[in-house]
Design goal:
This protein is an alpha/beta fold and about 425 residues long. Helix content is about 30%, strand content about 20%. It contains twelve helices and 22 strands. The strands form six sheets. Strands 11-7-5-2-12-1-13-17-21-22 form a ten-stranded mixed sheet, with helices on both faces. A hairpin with a 2-residue loop joins strand 3 and strand 4. Helix 2 packs across helix 6, helix 3 packs across helix 4 and helix 3 packs parallel to helix 5.
Length: about 425
């Protein structure tokens, strides 16, 4: 039997595109949903049945009975945050142990990683990157420095020693930075109390199925099972291809699936690119179409643009086609998915950046970080549809002005938009295949 392929869902802007909802919508078509990178810096929001759920580490297929959810080797796990998620899922009537496998090679975020994250961000001053302060960067640093702790280590007889030694190394680094670790807070509690919860979380993690998920996924493909890989953050936050250094610490692009799950490039099937009908960004870094005016505030207000993980307000702006074309190229996107078009229902006029201008010259390609901070967007104006989209379920019934907006994007990216979200609920989704 020929092996099945792994389809991929990626954010193709600066994160917060709505990946969690689309994973949840598509999950019934798949047998396995696998997260391949990132950690609790993600905030994937899923809404159905009148309830809203936010997932940080756990894959977004967890609410579907009979689906296996995999936390891959490229993911970081904070035992404390993970167990909060577990408790919330159990309150919602879901038992994650029956639906989830965790890679023995996934790295752990220690409480001291979180303090290091805060200390390093503090030292950057005005050039801070806008970290979520979840310990992501320091944990990935330890991974590449070959001194981190992995999920498989929690079953070792000398785990306590390994943990203590790494913690002491971190405390030494914090002292070097002049950071007052003794009185530091994590999630508004003394870090020593957080550590107690973290160690209790390690006990909880020992009750999950921790395996070499690369072998599990390979066997699943041999059996013809359908697999969906779920990414976190967005392409423009990729550690290589994003607006460095204002990026995350992992590979958020399609290639990251291979190293984050242990699968070959030949295994990749469809690649769904998720984007908002406008743009948002959290934290520092260039944002060519940013709106520091009432229009930007209206987008923020209508779109409830506040981080699901941090609660921070998001920066907002018009859709940026050069940035979108760049992320399509880097990822090999096959299917486009538009999110939150309904946020602009009341706008009489919309703008789309089709290119940039710098020093009097037209710039077609998305530029490097330094250049991106100085370009001026060249906009095309389009009429708004000025009617609610949320109640519509058929593409043919959509307003002509909205369909013109969709078709303009398709023409300028070379890809049709296959799915359109017109509200936060899983039911508020239009298929345009």
């Amino acid at each position: 039997m020929q092996k099945s392929k792994i389809d991929v869902i990626l954010g193709i802007q600066w994160g917060d595109e709505g990946k969690g909802k689309i994973v949840d919508v598509l999950a019934p078509r798949y047998d396995i949903i696998a997260r391949f990178q990132g950690g609790p810096n993600a905030g994937h929001t899923i809404k159905f049945g009148g309830a809203t759920h936010v997932l940080h580490t756990i894959p977004s297929g967890i609410f579907h009975e009979g689906k296996v959810n995999v936390i891959g080797n490229g993911v970081l796990v904070d035992a404390c945050i993970f167990c909060r998620e577990i408790a919330e899922l159990r309150q919602a009537g879901v038992e994650p142990r029956r639906r989830m496998k965790i890679s023995d090679k996934a790295h752990l975020i220690l409480p001291t990683h979180r303090m290091l994250d805060a200390a390093l961000e503090q030292r950057k001053g005005a050039r801070k990157i806008g970290s979520t302060v979840k310990g992501i960067g320091p944990a990935y640093t330890d991974k590449t420095a070959r001194c981190g702790l992995r999920m498989g280590d929690i079953f070792s007889t000398d785990f306590t020693r390994k943990y203590r030694e790494l913690k002491e190394e971190h405390l030494s680094q914090l002292a070097h930075y002049g950071f007052d670790a003794e009185s530091a807070l994590i999630d508004q509690m003394p870090w020593q109390e957080y550590e107690k919860q973290w160690l209790a979380g390690i006990e909880e993690l020992r009750g999950f199925e921790v395996v070499s998920t690369e072998f599990y996924l390979d066997e699943a493909m041999r059996q013809g099972k359908k697999i969906l890989a779920e990414g976190a953050q967005g392409t423009l936050l990729d550690v290589d291809f994003g607006s460095y250094p204002f990026v995350t610490s992992s590979s958020t692009v399609t290639a990251g699936v291979c190293v984050g799950l242990g699968v070959p490039p030949s295994a990749i099937g469809k690649v769904y690119g998720i984007f908002k009908a406008y743009c948002t960004r959290v934290g520092s870094g260039p944002f060519p179409t940013e709106l520091d005016d009432e229009t930007g505030e209206t987008l923020r207000r209508n779109g409830h643009e506040f981080g699901a993980t941090t609660g921070r307000s998001r920066r907002t702006g018009w859709l940026d086609l050069p940035a979108l074309r760049y992320t399509l190229m880097v990822n090999g996107i096959t299917d486009l998915v538009m999110m939150k078009a309904d946020v602009m229902d009341d706008f009489p006029v919309l703008k789309v950046a089709e290119s940039y201008r710098m020093d009097g010259k037209r710039v077609e390609n998305y530029p490097d970080t330094e250049t991106a901070e100085n370009v001026e967007p060249v906009y095309v104006e389009m009429p708004g549809w000025q009617r609610p989209l949320s109640g519509i379920r058929d593409y043919a019934a959509l307003p002509a002005a909205f369909k013109a907006y969709v078709e303009y994007i398709g023409k300028n990216t070379g890809l049709d938009i296959k799915m359109i979200s017109v509200g936060p609920d899983r039911e508020e989704t239009i298929m345009n295949a």
